Structures are given as C-alpha cells and as structure tokens.
Amino acid sequence: MIDGGDFNIRHIRKEDLAELIPLLNSPEIRGEYLAPSMVSPVEIERKFAQDGISNETFERFLIVDKTDQMLGTIFHFKSVPYYNAREIGYTIFSAKNRNTGIASKAVKLLTRHLFDTLLINRLEIRTHCRNLASEKVAIKCGFKKGGVARGANFVRGKSVDMNVYALLRDEVQM
To answer: How far is CA 13 from the centre of its chain?
Structure first.
C-alpha cells in the first residue's frame, strides 16, 4: 500500500470486485474523453483470479480514502514494447472528488513508486486533446508535453488526437 496522507493506493482485493466492475464499465464515469467500452465482469474476475490484475505488463490499483471507500483507480502499463517506459492512467469515480487534487497526488505517488521500484527511465500520460482536466494533472505532476499522436484513439465513433506527456527519471522532484 502507498500512503497518500488522506488516501491510500492499494492493490485490488477480491471483495472489491462487486463494487469495482460496474464503476469500470460506467459510461458516465468514463466520460466523454474515454471510449465507452465495457469489459465482461467474467473477464475482469478471470484476470483477477489469474494475477490480481497485477503483472509485468499491466497493474491496476485502487485509490481509497482512509475508511477504504473507493475514490478512483490508477494503473500503469507497458504501452510500447521497445520503450524503457510505462504509461500511467487514472480515473476518479465521483464528480465530487474530481478537481480536488486527488488525481495529481496519486500520480505523483505512483511516479515515485515506479521510479523507485522499476528499471525504467520514462513515464508517459496520454490524454484526449480536449481533456483539459487530465492535461492539468500531467503538467502539475511535472510531465512535459512531447507532442500529439494524431488520430491515435477511437472515442464515440471518431478518431481523436492524443496529447503525449512524459517525465524522465532525472526530472522527478523527489
């Protein structure tokens, strides 16, 4: 578990799945900037049984308050096979918890954890080009815009551009 002061970042537990699966599949929570795709609950449960949704290529954590209530999720994965890098993604479930600094603080904590525990030199955050809130998180956490991946994602029937932000190991303010 990673202690964030007023919240924790922890691995998913079996008893979390009943609450987590509908949140991961909610179009309202996914919002207008993420594809409204749904994953079968059976598939999520199978992945959990296989490795706890934590392996070398993809690891998902929960962001929970001090009473262990789910606030959101944060994850990292290897997006480009030949990069010495990981990509970070995050979602805050409730609108009342957005714009409170939780996502930024969680990204900073996960950044520190990944650079402390993995032999990587680069972290990336990719955001829908119109997702200003997520772009602010990346900037607040020290990530620098490296460019735009044109037409890189398919959201709600359209190809959309993605901003690419990166942070190198020697740029981290520890």
So the answer is: 18
pTM exceeds 0.70: yes
What's the CA gap between 23 and 16, in Å, rounded? 11
Q: 57-90, pLDDT tens digit by residue?
A: 999 999 999 999 999 999 999 988 888 899 999 9
Three-class secondary structure assignment of the chain: CEECCCEEEEECCHHHHHHHHHHHCCHHHHCCCCCCCCCCHHHHHHHHHHHCCECCCEEEEEEEECCCCEEEEEEEECCCCCCCEEEEEEEECCHHHCCCCHHHHHHHHHHHHHHHHCCCCEEEEEEECCCHHHHHHHHHCCCEEEEEEEEEEEECCEEEEEEEEEEEHHHCCC
Rounded CA separation 84/86 (Å): 7
> How does strand 122-128 pair with strand 158-168?
antiparallel
